[in-house]
């Protein structure tokens, strides 16, 4: 097990230029292809969040506080574990390690207290990838209230938190999407899955078909950049000792 400081990476990320977009018929992060789904650019949304984070950091530092510092604990010697963005779930697979970190400093949102608060619709550190998916939906103005959603998968670090964020009450402390959510997994009969997806307004899955979807996130450039952006958001909130607004 080794500990690696990501301060230099965080600093470089915060100092990258933000490119503005001119006004166009569609929101800046959407692109349409004839007879295919509208492509949601996670990279462009992440740039928007990056600008928000940079402003928060500068205000935080200008008020006399220390610049936020992000550190990572790596579990094992797997080369995949050394790429946080590509495989942060495996890097934090040991729950004893997750729970050894203070929940207020848990930028991954994997601590049992943060997981419990999320399930209770309370403010908490949210896992970066599910929060990134939720922000894509929210910032693209895709309606979720009363909609049928199918989430393909049941991992505790990605799909289950996505389901929690989408189905919970929008009037609660940590507002949710007020959707009706169905969770499918490898034991869901194919015929049942087909019925659920036909009825669904939104399907969240790692595999998409452009000709069948209204909106789709590309790979690469979809959820990945958003997960990194939300990790930076969590870092700022951890530095402040607070939680999601």
From TrEMBL:
Alphabetized UniProt keyword annotations: One-carbon metabolism, Signal
Lineage: superkingdom: Eukaryota
Matches recorded under Gene3D superfamilies: Leucine Dehydrogenase, chain A, domain 1, NAD(P)-binding Rossmann-like Domain
Residue span(s) of domain Tetrahydrofolate dehydrogenase/cyclohydrolase NAD(P)-binding: 127-210
Domain Tetrahydrofolate dehydrogenase/cyclohydrolase catalytic: 40-94
Residues annotated as signal peptide: 1-20
Any single biological process term in GO: tetrahydrofolate interconversion
GO MF term set: methenyltetrahydrofolate cyclohydrolase activity; methylenetetrahydrofolate dehydrogenase (NAD+) activity; methylenetetrahydrofolate dehydrogenase (NADP+) activity
GO terms under cellular component: mitochondrion
Pfam family name, one: THF_DHG_CYH
The protein's name: Methenyltetrahydrofolate cyclohydrolase
């Amino acid at each position: 097990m080794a500990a690696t400081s990501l301060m230099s990476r965080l600093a470089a990320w915060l100092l990258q230029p933000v490119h503005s977009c001119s006004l166009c018929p569609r929101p800046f992060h959407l692109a349409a292809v004839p007879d295919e789904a509208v492509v949601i650019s996670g990279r462009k949304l992440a740039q928007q969040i990056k600008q928000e984070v940079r402003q928060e950091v500068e205000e935080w530092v200008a008020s006399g506080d220390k610049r936020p510092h992000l550190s990572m604990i790596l579990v094992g010697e797997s080369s995949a574990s050394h790429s946080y963005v590509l495989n942060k779930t495996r890097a934090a697979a040991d729950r004893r390690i997750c729970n050894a970190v203070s929940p207020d400093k848990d930028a991954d949102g994997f601590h049992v207290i943060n997981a419990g608060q999320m399930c209770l619709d309370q403010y908490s550190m949210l896992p970066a990838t599910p929060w990134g998916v939720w922000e894509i939906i929210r910032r693209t103005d895709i309606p979720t209230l009363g909609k049928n959603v199918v989430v393909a998968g049941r991992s505790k670090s990605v799909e289950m938190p996505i389901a929690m964020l989408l189905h919970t009450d929008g009037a609660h402390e940590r507002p949710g999407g007020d959707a009706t959510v169905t969770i499918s997994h490898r034991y869901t009969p194919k015929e049942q899955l087909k019925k659920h997806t036909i009825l669904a307004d939104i399907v969240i899955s790692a595999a998409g078909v452009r000709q069948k979807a209204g909106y789709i996130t590309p790979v690469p450039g979809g959820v990945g950049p958003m997960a990194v952006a939300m990790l930076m958001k969590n870092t700022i909130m951890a530095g402040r000792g607070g939680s999601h607004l």
